Amino acid sequence: MAPTLSQAAALLRRAGRSGAARTGNAERWSELESVFDPGQRRNARDDYATRVLLTGALREHSCAIDIGANNGAILEQIVAVAPEGRHFAFEPIPALADDLRRRFPAVTVTTAALSDVAGTAQFTVVVDAPALSGLKRREDLPAETRRTEVIGVEVVRLDDVVPADASPAFVKVDVEGAEVGVLRGAQQLLAKHRPVVVFEHGSGGADLYGETSGALWDLLDGCGLRIFDLEGRGPFDRSTFEGLFTSPRSWNYAAIPR
Question: Could you give the 3-state DSSP secondary structure of residue 107?
Fold first, then answer.
């Protein structure tokens, strides 16, 4: 019996990884593998949409905020689009934050996590996939990324640490489920400046924090922002957005000023 499309894709992935290991082309294979992986294809499309949104939101001197800056992929785009702007990045993993300071000396980089209550907290670092790190340990980590370590981090509120004279036009939030707390701690900034906000939200993340899509919709609506997915569908009403929480199609969204 001929293999199904998904079976054929799995066979090709295994063969490609094996060949990459033998030839030393693992990095190139990682790029090609996204052709077969629906999640990676979605992430690639959403990354492109994020670049389009920040290009539209930012001018040469605009201000932007990158929350969960990780390896600086989005921050690099921000600096390229708004080279004369005043930018802020937040990254709780010290080694990554130090690297961001080295690469982006004009950006104010803070080694801290964000929430709606300031203080200190335990932070789970996913050693082999730092982008999956967070204040709560995800239960759906892939088998190959389950090596973790716990560190202590400072936790700050965005409303407390962004200077009053800063006027952000674009905010990116990628915090593995902690986005509701982050945005709750930024309500004054959001309501005052109404920036474009790109954020991740979905099952396996926000539910770890006891947060709901309805609460997030209410928060953003109260700040004058409407929610779309990164394919342009929306604006979503509260009920529709709640229904997307467990959708395998959408986990990245944009909140756009009315």
Answer: coil
